[in-house]
Each structure stands twice: as C-alpha cells, then as structure tokens.
Specification:
The structure is a homotetramer of 139-residue chains. Chain A has 139 residues and is an alpha+beta fold. The first copy, chain A, has helices at 25-41, 45-50, 126-134, and strands at 3-9, 57-64, 73-81, 87-96, 102-111. Chains in contact: A-B, A-C, A-D, B-C, B-D, C-D. At the C-D interface, helix 1 and strand 2 of C face helix 1 and strand 2 of D.
C-alpha cells in the first residue's frame, strides 16, 4: 500500500469566523497531500503532464469529523487506491498535529484526459501500467 | 420541494492553469447557493446563529461532470432535502449559463451545534420544526 | 472620468476569525471591480486577450480603513486613471452597503504583455488608443 | 536587522490560467512569511493575541517583478522594519527557488487594536517595547 504523509501549517487565511479551518480548505489540503504523494512517487501533475495527460477530478467525498484550529498543523496522509479502471483514486486522512486525532477523511477520483481534445481514456494509460509495475502494485 | 437558484460570474482567480474553474471552488459555489437559499427562505447562517446555533458540515459529496470556463457564469440551484434526523441536507446542481448543461452536482450535510460547548443536537431544534411547518415541509 | 460600481455579497469563506473580511480578499474585490468595469466598457481580460495581449499587474496598493462584516455587501467602485504611459491604471473605493462608509481604497497598475514571448509593450497598444478615443479620454 | 526566510511550494490552486501564481496569492505568501517570522521571534498573531491585541493591516504595497510557476517554490524573506510609531511594519522579498531571482517585493503596515472595543493604540504597547529590547532593536 503506497502512502505518503505531509505536514502543513494552518494559515490564518484558512480559518473562518468560528475560528476553525473553513471546510472548503480541506479540498486544498487533499490536493497538497496528493501532490506531495506525486512528488514522492513520481506521479505529480507535472509527471503526468509529461505523458501528455491531465487528470481532472470527477468525484470527491469529504467526511468532516473534528475541527482544526489556527496554531495547529494538518498532518495529511494520502494513500493510493488501486483500481482496474482507468481512474486515479486516492484516500485521505487528515490529523491534528497537536492532538493526534483524525479531523477529516476523504476520497478523490480522477480520470485521464487529453488536455486539448478533452477526450477521456477508457483504459489505463501505458505509463500508469508501468508506474504500477515499478511500485509492485497489481490488481 | 424548496429550491433556489442564484447566478455567479466565474472569477479570473477561480480558474486554474487548465483554464477551467478549479475543482475546489465548487465547494465555495455550493456555500454561495446555500446562503442565497438561506436569504430567500430565512435559513442563512446568521438566521440560525440568532437561534444560538452553528451548522458545521459533516459530509460533502461533489460530482464533477463538465468544466466551467472564464467568461461564463455558474447557475447554482440549491434544494432543501427533508430528513427526520437532526441534520440540514442540501442538494446542488450547477449549470453553465452559456451552455445550459450541468457542470457539477453535490450534496452537503450539516449538523446543529452549540458554538461554545461544541455540543451537537441529536434531535431537530425547535426553530427548525417551526421553519419546516412555515414552508409546509413534513417528514 | 470613467467609473463603474458593482455590488458583491460578503461570503462566509471570505471572513476571518476576527469576523471581518480577511485583508487579502480585497485584492479579489478589486479584480471583481476591474472585470465588472471591463464588461461595462469593453476592456475586460477577454476583450484585451482578443487583441493578443495579457495585462499582468506590476503594482498594487491597498489602504484599509474600516472592516467589512459577514451579512454586509461590498460596493466596489472602479475608476479608470488615464496615463500617457503604456500602463493600465485603476483606482478602487470599496464601501459597506450597510453603513455607506469607505472600507478600503487602492490602486492597481498593469502592463501590456505578449502572452507567449512575455515581451512588454513600451508604447500604448493601438487598441487602447482606439478605446480611449471611443470613450473621449485624451491625455 | 531581524529577518526570516521560509520556503513554500507553489500550489496548483494558486496558479491562474496564464500558468503563473495569481497576483492576489502573494498577499497570502506575505502573511505566511510574517507568521513564520512571528514563530521564529515570538511575534506571531497568537503571541500578540496573548497580550490582548489584534494587529489588523492598514496598508499594503506589492510590487510584482517576475512570475512564479507551478513546480517552483516561493522563498519568502520577511524583515522587521523598526519605527517609533505604534505600528508593525514588515518588508517582503519573494524569490523563485528554482531561478534565484526576485519575483515580488512588498511592505505591510499593521496597527495595534483592542479586539473588542476596536480601539487603536496610539503609542507602542509595552510588550512591543519589551520585544524590541529583547532583540536589541532601538529607534
């Protein structure tokens, strides 16, 4: 199971008038986690772009469990979810660095798209097959 | 079925390097739609706050169907989803003003919380019962 | 003097933990005002882009005078500042819709750039000369 | 001269359709730099808040020199600017980690405010005098 964890300071501008991280900012944290994963394992936006593809989200689910406050840090854990479909799926768990407990979980699903024609790939692109082989992931 | 529609110009700062609205900004559009609904039907954050309650999100689901470009407008339709539970549920449909097609759908679930003690209400608060009666909504 | 005014509801996500609009969001309001001006007078990003140019900011000044709260609206007044230089200058005044007083003022300066070569225009582009003639602006 | 430098990965959501960091996000980088300085020298929002004060911005100036792209990092240098007035002034220089050149400079001015009464301090608060003595800063 490929997973990667990154820490992120909660910014003042991310906190709302209830003095907790505004819910929409977790979507940003997910992308931060996904890109940190991508950097660690060679599957970032720019890596994928070099293979001529973009990976737009088609689905996003967020489950809010507790609040995160200014002064704390978000510990974002991103896990690759293997799937035989031509999709890129990640699971997220965000914890409070200060308290250790889970603040938020979620899942995002992306597809492989030609950036110009906007055409979607219906089978796993070859570079993804190679990437999965490299990291010993088999369906 | 209570529903409300509001139009929103796509901002330059909301568009990403693929020249479409960045996926996280739909969460903002949902809140815009929810607050416009709240203004129309007396169920906004400030209305609820007057009853001594905050309504944090516990769950959010977004389904991305098509892209929205700069120069276009988001037509955000927000629908109240009745539930016997002590929850506030809304469905969203965002359309492109220019093309008419659906760009994104979603659902948010909120709970009723005492802002200071952070205690959650496990039964529907009285003001919500009154609100539902006022708008002829019965479970 | 060309000026344009647009109203904008303060969003919950724009308000910080002091319960006022976070200062960085005024930069967004300025761009909203500038684009609303552009729509009214044919000088929006997309209009300029049709002439093969982008107009990146080179300078921004913001003067914060009072706070703007959730529940209020920002009344954004954008004024074209004529200049013989190859620059696009706008002045902004943001008022509280509720109280009428000035909340924030500012000025932005943009230059004309070829988007691909990134080369800057050192003289006013012809379409701007034509635009100024159309609106009876002469240096 | 007290100065502090912090590195920040450029986020995908911070980049606009011209594929460079959207100008308004530099205001966020300035606050990131200011808060990193505050953490290093004991002058963060929460430190100041412990002395019963908030420090709202009254003035902000940004000078944009070059662009910052996705895949790069912002190197944010924040410098305390001493002043006999009851103000908190910081200068910022943002560099591209990849190219080394300066991308953006700026200055912010904050005042000391009682968060409840919204009253401003017209003389330097005692804790600031103590802070300046601690770090050997004298006007």
């Amino acid at each position: 199971m490929l997973t990667h964890t990154v820490k992120q300071i909660v910014k003042f501008s991310e906190v709302d008038s209830l003095r907790v991280v505004w819910h929409g900012n977790y979507v940003r944290y997910f992308e931060d986690g996904r890109e940190a994963f991508g950097k660690a394992y060679g599957l970032g936006y720019l890596d994928i772009y070099e293979h001529g593809l973009a990976v737009p989200l088609i689905d996003l689910h967020v489950n809010f469990k507790r609040v995160l406050e200014y002064g704390d840090e978000a510990v974002i854990e991103t896990t690759f979810v293997d799937s035989p479909a031509a999709k890129l799926i990640f699971d997220y768990t965000i914890r409070s660095a200060r308290h250790g407990h889970v603040v938020c979980t979620g899942r995002s699903t992306q597809v492989f798209m030609e950036p110009v024609s906007k055409e979607l790939h219906i089978t796993m692109p070859p570079f993804m097959e190679a990437w999965k082989k490299k990291w010993n992931i088999s369906d």
